[in-house]
Amino acid sequence: MNKWSKTETQLLKKNYNKLTNDQLTKTFNRSFLSIYKKARSLGLYKNKEIEFKNRSLARSGENAANWKGGRKKTQKGYVLILKKDHPRSSKAGYIMEHRLVMENHLKRYLRSDEVVHHINGKKDDNRIENLLLMDHGEHSRSHHKGLKRSDETKQKMSRWAKRRLKDKRNHPSYKEIDIKKLLIEHQNGKTIRNICEENNICERTFYNKKEELTV
Predict the structure, then answer these.
(1) Taking residues 40-47, what's their average pLDDT?
(2) How far is CA 163 from CA 28, 147, 168, 171, 181, in A?
């Protein structure tokens, strides 16, 4: 993707809080994720009115969950919804329906370390009452609960997990983060909470990265 020109940057500053996500992608001929990241780097946020318009549009037309052309299943049985303006949609514009349902319920985007669990085990039952928000550890334990394994198998699994997790990059919640950049933002007056929200990380991750820097 080409770099943002000064003209584009000024246009984004002027219109980010006025145009819907769909209008922005058409205006700049860029993906919404590209626009979203640029807006965050400029400290731009949408007000409640424009966010309401975005949610309304998401529930209508091709973005609606009941539109057959925008809905399909994965080989593992999960339901995908076409939502090209979502910051975490795939290259084809799809996102997991169960995550989208939870986001609509919470009225915010999910963090990458948050997992949505199907309570009854049916991966296509995405009613909100069948969904439970967890972290990676809780989700893993919920799927292993009740399984019977020999002590030898458990020991092998434990040894394998320890070897794999010796490298922090193999941990499911590991994130590549420029902590020096984030610390500069904090020194310039930005709150840790805002920094974490903008970079889709939890505050624990922020402090862990900060500690790693001082070791």
Answers:
(1) 82
(2) 46, 23, 10, 11, 31
Q: Where in the chain are the domains? A: 1-58, 67-170, 179-214
Cα separation, 164 vs 150, in Å, equals: 21
Does residue 80 contact residue 43 with C-beta atoms inside 8 Å?
no
For residue 113, give both structure tokens: 């370390």
* pTM for the predicted model, two decimal places: 0.39
Q: Residue 101 has which token pair? A: 């349902």
| Dihedral pair phi/psi, residue 109, rounded to 5° | -75, 145
Q: In the structure encoding, which two tokens stand for residue 38, read together?
A: 């640029």
**Between these two residues, 3 and 158, which has the higher pLDDT value?**
3
Where does residue 121 fall: left (phi above 0), alpha (psi -120 to 50 degrees), or beta otherwise? Answer: left
Q: How many CA atoms lie within 13 A of 79 on its CB side?
A: 21
Angle, helix 32-41 to helix 6-15, in steps of 10 degrees: 90
Q: 67-170, what's its fold?
A: Homing Intron 3 (I-Ppo) Encoded Endonuclease; Chain A (3.90.75)
Q: Which residue has the tokens 């090209």?
A: 84
Find, among 185, 169, 181, 174, the residue nearest to 213 by Cα: 181
Locus of tokens 């020109």 = 5
Residue 151 CA from chain centroid, whole number:
37
